Each structure stands twice: as C-alpha cells, then as structure tokens.
Amino acid sequence: RSTYILKRRYPVKLYRKGVDRIRLKGKDYVYDLIEDTTVTKKPDVQVILKEYIEGLGQRGDVVTVKRNVAYNKLLIPGIADYASPEAVERSKFVKEKEKEVQSFSTLTALQTVRYLESHVLSVVMNKETEWTIEPWHIRVSFRKAGIHVPDECISLPVKPIYGPDANLEGKEFCVTVTINNKEKVNVRCRIHHWSTNPADRLPHIDNHWLLECEPIFPEEADTLKKLSLQSSLKKKKNEVSSF
C-alpha cells in the first residue's frame, strides 16, 4: 500500500467564534512531502534456515537478510521460514537434536574448501641446493599466494620428495590441508626450480596452472585428476558469470 505523508507549508488560520467559514486561499493548498512509503527502505527480515547454506548459516540458524533475498532465494525455494516465535522454538529443538550430526565448522569453511580444491600451488625450490620438501616449504608457497596456512595444518605425501631434480620440474603432487581441525582438503602442488643466477633460470610459462601435468606419484593420479576437473569447472563458471 502506498502512503504519502504531507504537511501544509502555510498553516491555516483558526476560525473565530461566531465567524462564518472563510474561503481558503491558493497558498493554503501548498503541501510539502514529508514521507513517501513507496521509496522508503524496507527493514531486513529474519528467517530460519532449513538447511546449510554456504556463506549464510547452518540448519536452524536465525539470520537477517534483505527482503528480496529472503523472498526470492530462501522462502520461495522452501529452504527457509519466517522467524516467528513458534518457528524459533522449533529451530532450537532441531539444533539440539543435530548437535551430533556432522556440519561445517564455520560459515566460510565450505567456500575455503572449494577455493583450495581449485587452486594450483606453485612450489618454487632452489635449483642449486639440495632440499627435501617439508611443511614450511608449502606454508611459504601458500603465503606467496596470499593464503595463510600453519605448518601443523599441512600433511605431506607419505613418500618424501627430494631435489633438485630436473625430472620433477612441472610435475604435481598432493598435500592435505586441515581447516579448523575439522575439514580436510587436498591441494594440487606443482614444483618449479629457480636459480639465483638469471642465466640458469628456466623460461617462464604463462598460466602454467592451465596445463596438464604428470603426477610425481602414480597413486595420486586419480586425486589430482579430480582436482584438475574441479579447477576447470570453476574457471568455466567464472567465464560465464563475467558476461
């Protein structure tokens, strides 16, 4: 319903007792618009989620969202209800029942898992000094990519990886990252040898993460293939969303 709240710009004089009704002048019909409810921002609404929604909440959580989001993306699809007092009480009972059911540790845990699964981590190793890949090498590689991962959250392959070895150049292996001591995600890592001498450095390859590479360990081939497929699907999704 549309409502307009108006106010006279010039107050009308009161009638004197015993005086006939006077005729209003033109200025008495001039009004100022105080409020137009058709353009007034509607308050956000609270809804109760019926299932886990990535980036929003767990099942039974009461969240506050914009009206159009609540109506079009939550209420119509049937994945949320209005947060009435009765529904809030029911949600508390449901959450108590599901405490033992596995759920994500945080609202962004699933987003983090998907991001890491689609990421190709470049592990740059020295071409001149002997090395064995350790968790801190992976931590530094993550840091270069703008991702903070503590050493204790990184699990390396069972078999050690030694170098420098030209046969390992551009090949992949898999590490496991633990998120919030709960979720585990596999991440593709690709070895690249680097030298302090510019003349000995290998040529730069643009968009190396788009190239298919051999696994260092054949037993990890299936896992790396699945991660590669997920990375390709994410790339196509981003290309479609950019139009």
UniProtKB/TrEMBL annotation:
<dbReference type="GO" id="GO:0006412">
    <property type="term" value="P:translation"/>
</dbReference>
<dbReference type="InterPro" id="IPR020070">
    <property type="entry name" value="Ribosomal_bL9_N"/>
</dbReference>
<dbReference type="Pfam" id="PF01281">
    <property type="entry name" value="Ribosomal_L9_N"/>
</dbReference>
<dbReference type="GO" id="GO:0003735">
    <property type="term" value="F:structural constituent of ribosome"/>
</dbReference>
<dbReference type="GO" id="GO:1990904">
    <property type="term" value="C:ribonucleoprotein complex"/>
</dbReference>
<dbReference type="InterPro" id="IPR000244">
    <property type="entry name" value="Ribosomal_bL9"/>
</dbReference>
<comment type="similarity">
    <text>Belongs to the bacterial ribosomal protein bL9 family.</text>
</comment>
<feature type="domain" description="Ribosomal protein L9">
    <location>
        <begin position="45"/>
        <end position="89"/>
    </location>
</feature>
<dbReference type="InterPro" id="IPR036935">
    <property type="entry name" value="Ribosomal_bL9_N_sf"/>
</dbReference>
<dbReference type="GO" id="GO:0005840">
    <property type="term" value="C:ribosome"/>
</dbReference>
<protein>
    <recommendedName>
        <fullName>Large ribosomal subunit protein bL9m</fullName>
    </recommendedName>
</protein>
<dbReference type="InterPro" id="IPR009027">
    <property type="entry name" value="Ribosomal_bL9/RNase_H1_N"/>
</dbReference>
<keyword id="KW-0687">Ribonucleoprotein</keyword>
<keyword id="KW-0689">Ribosomal protein</keyword>
